[in-house]
């Protein structure tokens, strides 16, 4: 009997895992929520510094003041009205820019002659800074809505063109050869092989285009605007209302994040055949 107990004791010690005393339980929060802990800490520090007088309201309003300003602007209908104007400009500019970018990328990507005609001017134009084009756009289109929409369209066209062109030229030639073996003509290769192969790059370009469109809108709404989020920010600057300025900036940021999240969802569904996305 003593021999049996001596044999059982070491086995029990082996099977029972040792728990170190220094081990501390982690926060039982989902990963998505843990990502917001550091921004929340920064906002709390910002609020504390404002309440302690370390940050002047004329330099930067406190988060509580910004929330109150956003609530008042929403209740009065001023913020939704300006937001609707900005959304209209972005949607119009995106429609024009995406159509132009996709069309030019298809011309340049599917034809050597098209590349020689289209690619060089596009590469030259994309290096021009937007601010340098504002005076020309005012001379060409006036000071109404046309120059604002044109700037947004220009900002959205180049990312789509560059990524879709690279995606078309980056399709594996072996896939095209396999398509020819199965009897696909040129139109069939473009529809069933080249365009699906370039779709991931095109969706990345769409994400960049959305971000560039919002950045272009910030510049565009400085051109004699009488409505829009940019006009709201400029008007608040004249009265040193940093709370309203930050509200406008937050609206821009949230719209950009929302648009990017929408494209990510479309990307997951459109590219569900990719193993990397299926596993994620």
Automatic annotation (TrEMBL):
<feature type="transmembrane region" description="Helical">
    <location>
        <begin position="90"/>
        <end position="113"/>
    </location>
</feature>
<feature type="transmembrane region" description="Helical">
    <location>
        <begin position="36"/>
        <end position="55"/>
    </location>
</feature>
<dbReference type="Pfam" id="PF00528">
    <property type="entry name" value="BPD_transp_1"/>
</dbReference>
<protein>
    <submittedName>
        <fullName>ABC transporter, permease protein</fullName>
    </submittedName>
</protein>
<feature type="transmembrane region" description="Helical">
    <location>
        <begin position="244"/>
        <end position="263"/>
    </location>
</feature>
<feature type="domain" description="ABC transmembrane type-1">
    <location>
        <begin position="79"/>
        <end position="263"/>
    </location>
</feature>
<feature type="transmembrane region" description="Helical">
    <location>
        <begin position="149"/>
        <end position="168"/>
    </location>
</feature>
<keyword id="KW-0812">Transmembrane</keyword>
<feature type="transmembrane region" description="Helical">
    <location>
        <begin position="125"/>
        <end position="143"/>
    </location>
</feature>
<comment type="similarity">
    <text>Belongs to the binding-protein-dependent transport system permease family.</text>
</comment>
<keyword id="KW-0813">Transport</keyword>
<keyword id="KW-1003">Cell membrane</keyword>
<dbReference type="InterPro" id="IPR035906">
    <property type="entry name" value="MetI-like_sf"/>
</dbReference>
<comment type="function">
    <text>Probably part of an ABC transporter complex. Probably responsible for the translocation of the substrate across the membrane.</text>
</comment>
<dbReference type="InterPro" id="IPR000515">
    <property type="entry name" value="MetI-like"/>
</dbReference>
<keyword id="KW-1133">Transmembrane helix</keyword>
<dbReference type="GO" id="GO:0042918">
    <property type="term" value="P:alkanesulfonate transmembrane transport"/>
</dbReference>
<feature type="transmembrane region" description="Helical">
    <location>
        <begin position="189"/>
        <end position="210"/>
    </location>
</feature>
<dbReference type="GO" id="GO:0005886">
    <property type="term" value="C:plasma membrane"/>
</dbReference>
<keyword id="KW-0472">Membrane</keyword>
